[in-house]
Amino acid sequence: MHELSIASAIVEQAAEIARADGADGVSSVTVRVGELAGVVPDALHFAFEVARDGTALAGARLIVEQVPAVAWCGGCAEEFAVGMPPFFWCPRCDRPSQELRGGRELEITEVAPVPAPA
């Protein structure tokens, strides 16, 4: 399960970001995961819960934004979903696409700090 190594990297990077911002802890981490990134969101959630224990993210929740895989057809200027398993054939002009525009993302987009006590 490679999601555990991905979750560990997310925890490390989010903790580093929080430290750099002067935060004592993290309440949530938002990540964008592309449809073709080879990451199973449920497995990533489970792995995150394991990886966060004993860290500044111990109480943090993981928010996964799934990004659909889309390709671009240069022949007819059509952007289309490639689906899973991926099919890179333009549904409009019936030609193969050679440009993937989205769906391979795996990035942290937000690290929310634990709110300061009032």
What does this structure look like?
This is Hydrogenase maturation factor HypA. Ni(2+) binds at residue 2. The chain is α+β, with helices and mostly antiparallel strands. It folds into two domains: 1-68 and 103-118, hypothetical protein PF0899 fold (2-Layer Sandwich); 69-102. 25% of the residues lie in helices and 31% in strands. It is built from two helices and six strands. The protein has helices at 3-20, 41-52, and strands at residues 26-34, 61-67, 70-73, 78-81, 99-102, 106-113. The strands form two sheets. Strands 2-1-6 form a three-stranded mixed sheet, covered by helices on one side. It has a three-stranded antiparallel sheet with strand order 4-3-5, with no helix packed on it. Helix 1 crosses helix 2 (41-52). It is elongated. It starts with a helix and ends in a 5-residue tail after the last strand. The mean pLDDT is 94.
Q: What gyration radius follows from the Cα positions, in whole Å? A: 18 Å
CATH class of the largest domain: Alpha Beta
Number of strands: 6
Taking the alpha carbons of the first and last residues, their distance comes to 41 Å
* Largest sheet strand order: 2-1-6
InterPro entries: Hydgase_Ni_incorp_HypA/HybF_CS (IPR020538), HypA/HybF (IPR000688)
Binding site for Zn(2+): 73, 76, 90, 93
Pfam families: HypA
Binding site for Ni(2+): 2
